[in-house]
Amino acid sequence: MRVLMLALLFFWLFCPVCGQDANTISSMQDSLDQHVRPAFWIDFEQDFLLDFLPGINQDRNYTQGTAFSFESPQLRNNLLFIPLELLSRLQNKLSKTNNHLVLPSVLSFGITAFTPRVIDAPGPVIGDRPFANLVWLSTVRNTINIHTGWYTQTGLHFGWLGSNTANVFQSFAHRSLIKGRPTDISWEHQISRGGAPAFLFSLRSMRSLWQFPNDSGSTWRWFDLSAGGHIQAGWYTGIGLPVQIKAGKISLNSLMSNDLSAILSNGNRLLRKAEGRPEPSNPSKHTPSNNKSFFEAYLFISAEPRITPHNSMLLGQPGKKDTYVLPDENYNPLLLDIEYGIVLSKLHIRDQTLLPVKRFDVILSMQTRSPEIINTTYQRWHHWGRVGVRCSL
């Protein structure tokens, strides 16, 4: 039985493409590269977005994060993405196959900040988390395996830990935007004060396990269950098992699965219905339609249990001496991240193109993380809100 399981795992990982020749893969990639427009993202995460929930919004733990992202099919040709391209070629060489379509890559810049419960104490609060702030630049390569349906994000993230950026932003916010909170904040006790480089490698894969309805003739899905795995090494080091449920009006073009033929022809079916045209007698010889806009809206909830043996935001960077880091005996490596919210989208879908060629998305969500600290005084769940907007250019 053990040999059989290993054989099945080997087949699942390295089996060549079934029913897809090189010309088909090339055609799908060319259509995606040619028609999918670049897009700009703004992601804003803040504790004060939960002001309407009494007792939850407090300036502690994950206090804020802001990210600006640019995504484009052509980004993978940028010099910054050469390391990810080399990793992809190594993967193809080891597996002796190339089953992947390359989706739009993402370049992001942002800042994230964490604070203890008391942010204006004259010295470190022993047993609570230290101050930590990270400015980072991320390169992420997105692919889908057209044989297995696995959607994979591979990221190389370059950061600077310990700058004064979060102190400036938080002090300004407390003086001008959220009055009443302390403005003389003890950022002089932060992790890697003065600045130090940091690095993170991440690999996240997800696959749709069940959809409803699941017949290839349906143009929309009303339910989707996805699951996968998540590996990080660097300023966070650990593994996770993400699970996500979506419910609502969901386009096939927003769901990655191994039924690519259904996704590729979905645009034509939607356009025919919108324009009142009949089904073609020979679908394989139809003429591709121009793109048309459709609205998508769904609720989602995701959960990711994680084990994180090392977290530089709490335990400090190896080899770097800090004023204060969380004692090892107070560190909890077992975590649970939960996010739930709503996604509203306007999609322009084109026949025979895997992704929407143009889109506008709004994401509103609440996020919760289980305690990272083991002691009765400072152990606590933390909560924050998220607003994300994506717009094609």
What does this structure look like?
The protein has 393 residues and is an alpha+beta fold. The chain has a single domain (21-278, 288-392), classed as Lipocalin (Beta Barrel). It is 19% helix and 42% strand. The protein contains six helices and 14 strands. It has helices at 2-14, 22-35, 82-95, 165-176, 260-275, 312-315, and strands spanning 39-46, 61-72, 100-102, 105-115, 132-145, 151-161, 196-212, 220-234, 236-240, 243-251, 292-311, 334-349, 358-369, 382-392. Strands 1, 2, 3, 4, 5, 6, 7, 8, 9, 10, 11, 12, 13 and 14 form a 14-stranded antiparallel beta sheet that branches. The termini are far apart. Residues 1-20 and 282-289 have low confidence and may be disordered.
CATH topology: Lipocalin
Query: What sort of overall outline do the alpha carbons produce when their principal axes are compared?
Result: globular
Biggest sheet record? 14 strands, antiparallel
Q: How would you classify the helix and strand content by structural class?
A: alpha+beta
CATH class: Mainly Beta
- Please, what is the CATH homologous superfamily? Outer membrane protein
What's the rounded overall pLDDT mean?
Answer: 80
- How far the N terminus sits from the C terminus, by CA atoms, comes to 53 Å
Tally of discrete structural domains: 1
Low-confidence stretches: 1-20, 282-289
Helix count from the secondary structure assignment: 6
CATH architecture designation: Beta Barrel
Strands, count: 14
**What does the radius of gyration come to?**
23 Å
Strand content: 35-45%
- The ordered H/E elements are HHEEHEEEEHEEEEHEHEEE
